[in-house]
Amino acid sequence: MKIEQIYTGCLAHAAYYLESNGVAAIFDPLREVQPYIEKATKDNAKIKYVFETHFHADFVSGHLDLAKKTGAKIVYGPTAKPNFEATIAEDNQIFEVGDYKVKAIHTPGHTMESTTYMLIDENGHEHGLITGDTLFIGDVGRPDLAQHVIAELTEEKLAGYLFDSLRNKIMPLSDDLIIYPNHGAGSACGKNMSKETTDTLGNQKRFNYTLRPNMTKHEFIKEVLTGLTTPPAYFPKNVLMNIKGYESFDTVIERGEKALSPIEFELIANETDALILDSRQSDTFAAGFIPNSINIGLDSNFAMWVGELIPDIKQEILLVTDEEKEEETITRLARVGYDHAIGFLKGGFDAWKATGKEFETIGRISAGEFANKYTNEHPLVIDVRKKSEFASEHVIDAINIPLNSINEHLAEIPKEKPFILHCVGGYRSMIAASILKQRGWNNFVDVSGGFAAIAKTDVPKTTYICPTTLL
Fold it and tell me: Per-residue pLDDT tens for 406-461?
């Protein structure tokens, strides 16, 4: 028998592979399913079940493709109503995976269909819990997401259901159970998740703030709902794709992997409403890029920022990538439901530049140059970090316009007056810079190294929260 966590850092996502006596099951798979199939083939095992803990919001699951390719049955918990064939488990229903048993425990709260799966070994010993977004290490799943899909639900009602699920279904279980959550630190599905990706239930009872033994339901609801940020805009769209279905991942890859010469690329860009998305690193992008392209670097939280900043999930996309990064870029787009990449620039930006075609650049200055300008010129400074980051420390008189809300605040950013952009290290500010360039702003520079570099200079800083307006 083996239980393996398959962790994908850029989404802070954990899928699970269970194998026993030639039979396998996958829990909460990502969109690209071939690695799971290869893992089972290596073990001479047949995938019998695809278990889903809930309808996910932060990624599009691979359940449909996996079931189609392997014949596996898709399993959801009670109350789930998918638009495709699936087994809807009853509370406490047992499924056999070789010599192992998987027990479905209905734990509503994060969503109404949320279900935890108990793993029971060949000796009848309860080994672990695959908890989905019901229980994380250090936190619980935020109970405000399902209300964006089901209007009659409120976050208070969902939090109440979650309290009952944890107290009545999870906390009475043995302390030695291993907790296998769906996410770790960095996911937007919780607010206080640990960097650790597994733990014992006993430790969580001691250290997870939501599992305090004498906590009242009122206290739980208040504490769980306090401090929640607005969920990313693409979350409800991913939920609907997971409920209703989607195109095959193979079809998405085939459509996106169409290599285009610079002439073909330019022709399609001019004849369609396709967005030019450049996934190269920020410093490489700044040195030269195709006019009107947006930079979201593949080297960080690429999928999350795509979901935050590209409002139409069906937007056609033309890609500019580093060499041999085309498939990875298309895959990471598809993980969050952006299935309409329609081709990539063959040879990348170097091929574009070699033809003598027009390109643009973004000015960058060092932290030292920033300090000199700040002292002698008193420029307008726009900090695109999150409000919490800005509040912890920022340059005096800087204006905070978080990247995820920049499209709503464009009217506040002057086109004539020069300004300086920065984030913590340069990744987010380059995204912001590319958006501003696309919309007609030119009179600005970006700080290479961001606030991490600025913090080492003698530029005056404060923790006072400045107004988020330029007035």
Answer: 999 999 999 989 999 999 999 999 999 999 999 999 999 999 999 999 999 999 99
Whether 169 contacts 148, CB under 8 Å: no
With CA atoms as reference, report the closest residue to 62 among 119, 2, 116, 13. 13
Compute the half-sphere exposure of residue 126: CA atoms within 13 Å on the CB side of its CA.
16
CA distances from 446 to 194, 220, 251, 363 (A): 32, 43, 39, 6
State pTM to two decimals: 0.92
- Joined together, the tokens standing for residue 297 give 């670097």
Task: State the DSSP string of 49-88.
Answer: EEE-SS--SSS---HHHHHHHH-PEEEE-TT---SS--EE
How many Cα atoms sit within 13 Å of 364 on the Cβ side? 23
CB of 60 closer than 8 Å to CB of 66: no
Integer Cα distance of 37 and 24 in angstroms? 10
Cα 40-41-42 angle, rounded to 5 deg: 90
Q: Is the same domain home to 444 and 408?
A: yes
The maximal CA–CA distance of the chain, rounded, in angstroms, is: 74
Of the candidates 142, 166, 169, 170, the one whose C-alpha atom is nearest the C-alpha of residue 156 is 142
What are the residue ranges of helices labelled H in 166-248? 201-207, 217-225, 235-244
CB 329 within 8 A of CB 239: no
Taking the C-alpha atoms of residue 178 and residue 200, their distance in angstroms, rounded to an integer, is 4
Closest CA to 205 of 174, 237, 240: 174
pLDDT in tens, 320-341: 999 999 999 999 999 999 999 9
Hey, what's the torsion of the CAs at 166, 170, 175, 181, to 10 degrees?
A: -80
450-454 long-range contacts, CB within 8 A, separation 24+: 450/422, 450/423, 450/424, 450/425, 450/426, 451/383, 451/385, 451/389, 451/393, 451/394, 451/395, 451/422, 451/423, 451/424, 451/425, 452/424, 452/425, 453/366, 453/367, 454/367, 454/370, 454/371, 454/395, 454/422
Residues 391-399: what's their mean pLDDT?
96
H-type alpha helices, 257-386: 262-271, 282-287, 302-309, 326-335, 348-354, 367-377
Q: Which helix (H) or strand (E) holds 261?
A: none
Distance between CA 274 and CA 306 in Å, rounded?
14
Query: Is 241 contained in some domain?
Result: no
Q: Are residues 267 and 416 in the same domain?
A: no
User: Which of 354, 380, 414 finishes a domain?
Assistant: 354
Q: CA 141, CA 135: separation in Å to the nearest integer? A: 6
Q: State which residues form the domain around 443.
A: 364-462
Domain boundary among 354, 375, 410: 354
